[in-house]
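quick q for whoever's on today - can somebody do inverse folding on this one?? i tried earlier but teh output was garbage lol. tokens:
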């Protein structure tokens, strides 16, 4: 289910969410560069990522461990004109049984994600061990322990 955007800002949020998913699936470097602000903060259970460069390193580690991974968006909702909530699943073409639901709350400023709170089963994601050097342990609620 995707909510119908009520404002131009929400139409831009929807376009960003769709571009975010498409580039995650096709070119993770573009996703990071085109969708995230340089000083973005990404929080998830167990860890936080501070900045686009560290986010890129994490995404590359995941991609190397699961080159056939992809996401499917199932729902896009709006929280005002600056945040979008996306729900979906991570799939892995190499393992048809792999299915990991997620929910991401993306806060956007000047067309880029500045804060990403993603709720997911991080222990199930391949490549996270290799990504550990780029993640500050603690996750959601620890963003003040920055960098």
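ok took a stab at it. sequence:
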């Amino acid at each position: 289910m995707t909510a119908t955007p009520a404002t131009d800002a929400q139409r831009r949020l929807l376009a960003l969410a769709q571009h975010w998913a498409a580039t995650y699936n096709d070119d993770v470097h573009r996703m990071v560069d085109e969708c995230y602000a340089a000083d973005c903060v990404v929080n998830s259970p167990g860890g936080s990522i501070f900045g686009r460069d560290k986010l890129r390193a994490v995404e590359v580690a995941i991609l190397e461990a699961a080159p056939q991974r992809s996401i499917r968006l199932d729902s896009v909702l709006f929280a005002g004109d600056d945040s979008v909530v996306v729900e979906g699943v991570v799939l892995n073409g190499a393992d048809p049984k792999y299915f990991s639901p997620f929910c991401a709350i993306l806060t956007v400023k000047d067309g880029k994600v500045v804060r990403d709170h993603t709720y997911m089963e991080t222990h199930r994601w391949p490549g996270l061990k290799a990504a550990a050097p780029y993640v500050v342990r603690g996750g959601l609620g620890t963003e003040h322990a920055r960098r």
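fwiw Confidence is low (pLDDT under 50) at residues 143-147. also Residues 8-127 form a domain with the Nuclear Transport Factor 2; Chain: A, fold (CATH 3.10.450.50). so keep that in mind when u check it
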